[in-house]
């Protein structure tokens, strides 16, 4: 059954999927990085959900056999109150600080997770 012509379709639910050779390693990293919890495993997927029932997109860590070999075409940006402190925390969890970037007054820290998937940290 289709929606009436004058009804706006609801926006899609966002779900993020990241490939991993070591799903346990990346599931633990991203759960800690995002304040999520490991909710379930289904075949080659580890399912991460926001902790304590908070709203937020589902994050899947998908097991793959091949390692990452090129720059991500899409990446996650984490916007926080103190980007330097967050970068230091994530380095402690196994991330690597790779550099920084800026565009006018906007700046960010370029990071990589333990398997080399790039992400950025910016200020809220």
Termini separation (Å)? 41 Å
Strand order of the largest sheet: 1-4-3-2
Helix content: 10-25%
Mean pLDDT: 93
- Counting DSSP H or I runs of 4 or more residues, the number of helices is 2
- Describe the largest sheet: 4 strands, mixed
Question: Could you give the count of β-strands?
Answer: 8
What class, by secondary structure content? alpha/beta
Given the C-alpha coordinates, what overall shape results?
A: globular
Provide the gyration radius in Å. 17 Å
What proportion strand? 35-45%
Low-confidence stretches: none
What is the helix/strand order? Answer: EHEEEEHEEE
Provide an overview of this structure.
With 124 residues, the chain is an alpha/beta fold. The chain contains 2 helices and 8 strands. It has helices at residues 23-34, 83-92; strands at 15-20, 36-42, 45-50, 58-63, 76-80, 96-103, 106-112, 118-123. The strands form 2 sheets. It has a 4-stranded mixed β-sheet with strand order 1-4-3-2, with helices on one face. Strands 5-8-7-6 form a 4-stranded mixed β-sheet, covered by helices on one side. The longest helix has 12 residues, at 23-34.
């Amino acid at each position: 059954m289709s929606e009436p012509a004058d009804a706006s379709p609801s926006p899609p639910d966002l779900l993020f999927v990241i490939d991993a050779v070591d799903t346990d390693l990346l599931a633990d990293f991203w759960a800690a990085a995002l304040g999520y919890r490991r909710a379930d495993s289904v075949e080659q997927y580890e399912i991460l959900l926001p902790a304590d029932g908070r709203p937020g997109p589902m994050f899947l860590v998908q097991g793959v056999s091949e390692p990452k070999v090129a720059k991500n075409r899409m990446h996650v940006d984490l916007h926080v109150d103190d980007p330097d402190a967050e970068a230091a925390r994530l380095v402690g969890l196994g991330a690597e600080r790779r550099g920084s970037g800026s565009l006018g007054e906007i700046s960010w820290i370029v990071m990589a997770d333990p398997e080399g998937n790039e992400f950025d940290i910016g200020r809220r």
